[in-house]
Amino acid sequence: MTRWIVCAAAVWAAALVTIAGQGRRPIYAGTLDQHSAIDYRGTPPTDPVTRLRGELASGAVTLAFDGRLGFLRALLERLEVPVESQVLLFSKTGIQHPFTDPEHPRALYFNDRVIVGYIAGAPLIEMASHDAAQGVVFHTLRQDQAGPPQIDRPDRCLTCHLSANSLDVPGILVRSMFTDATGRTRPQLGSSLVDHRTPLDQRWGGWYVTGSHGAARHLGNAMVTDNMAPDAAVTDATLNRTMLDPRVDASAYPLAASDITALLVFDHQGRAINLLTRLGWEARIAAAESRLDLSSGELRDLVNETVDYLLFEDEVALPAPVQGVTGFARAFAERGPRDRRGRSLRELDLRTRLFRYRCSYMIYSPAFDALPAAARTAVYARMLQILSSRGDHEVMAILDDTRKGWR
After folding, report:
1. 29, 125, 241, 250: which one has the fewest Cβ atoms less than 10 Å from its Cβ?
2. Pick from 84, 366, 112, 125: which is nearest to 210 by CA?
């Protein structure tokens, strides 16, 4: 295994790294608050958690407080986030890192628009919610049954979630990082971001992983004891675990699992969200400044990068078949549109690649629909070019039935 390891991820990770060769200019001065085409803090968002916040404030809905889990189950149900998506992170990262360790991992739950973070015994539930136009909006919900549930929108999350690592927009970070038995990270041993282009043996440091994956190796479940030999933390005992690490009090979580299939999908989704947000922002700002040109320069490059990612052009092959231990794969596949033959972009492969059809389900996201018309047209043209060149008639047929007007 390579000595320099691309480390495993967290949605609210504290450490920052630089993506080698990213080559992007930094975010425009004043874009968040001052540019009329963005105004991140000033424009009222319409993301799912903001809508729930309004419903709670008006008394239209409430959330039941359920013993040890607090508001978690009611929140997941209201936001339509499947509990089967649970993945567990034991590294001490994020705004509530003092509460996180291998005995008390941070649980993440997600759908294609919302990520919910929960730590047993921590005072807050954290939420990252994707707004169609504004990017990811961060919220917290206090775990307190003394009063009505109240959702806040703190700024401190942007300390990590607005940087080159999120493509200079408020976005998602997915990391892999060597971590010791106390949950402390060892960034000096290597750290990077993770997506579907990352080899499996470089993923999930600092995460628990349950599921089978044959002879394939990864960094999940491994805890470093020797800085001079970090790779030695990966052993047969850390691989192909179908049961959660016994040091975790499973009764403090809805599931006793950190499903490998959910982790694979989560790895893909984070960068897709950031790319769609970045493209939307760039196109809106360029249009507002009367310089929108998608045929050349940085905007053309961003369109190409976004489409290539959504069509899995650089996906790393799975070295062995993968199988999870929860109902996540089934629950995930059941969501989303199907074509006249019953095919869906959410169908998983898990033998040699993540999805059966090489086109991301994020093509159906509100953020994609919110792209300026010219940007969406440029995306469709690039998609048709790639799909035609690789003779991918199945994906084209699915899109014909489920994504009207794409060609």
Report:
1. 29
2. 84
User: Residues with Cβ < 8 Å from 209, sequence gap 6 or more?
Assistant: 218, 220, 221, 241, 258, 260, 263
Do the beta carbons of residue 310 and residue 363 sit within 8 Å? yes
Q: For 175, phi and psi rounded to 5 degrees? A: -130, 160
Residue 382, token pair as written in the block: 């690039």
Contacts of 229 (CB under 8 A, 6+ apart): none
Distances from the Cα of 113 to the Cα of 37, 109, 129, 135, 376, angstroms: 22, 11, 6, 10, 19
Q: What are the domain boundaries of the chain?
A: 48-252, 278-325+340-402
Query: What is d(CA 187, CA 158) in angstroms, rounded to the nearest whole number?
Result: 21
The residues, any chain, with a CB within 8 Å of residue 156's CB and separated by 6 or more, are 95
Lookup: tokens for 234: 């990966």
Say if strands 87-89 and 207-208 run parallel, antiparallel, or are unpaired.
antiparallel
Task: Say how far apart CA 276 and CA 374 lie, in whole Å.
Answer: 14
Residues 6+ apart with CB under 8 A from 370: 132, 133, 280
Tokens read off for 167: 């493509």
Q: Order the strands of the 106-110 sheet from edge to edge.
A: 151-152, 135-142, 124-131, 114-119, 106-110, 87-89, 207-208
Strand (E) or helix (H) holding 114? strand 114-119
* pLDDT tens column, 354-407: 999 999 999 999 999 999 999 999 999 999 999 999 999 999 999 999 999 999
The pair of structure tokens assigned to 283 is 């196109």
> Which residues neighbour 388 within 8 Å (Cβ) at sequence distance 6 or greater?
396
pTM of the model: 0.92
Beta strands 124-131 and 135-142 are antiparallel
- Give the model confidence (pLDDT) of 214-231 as tens digits: 999 999 999 999 999 999
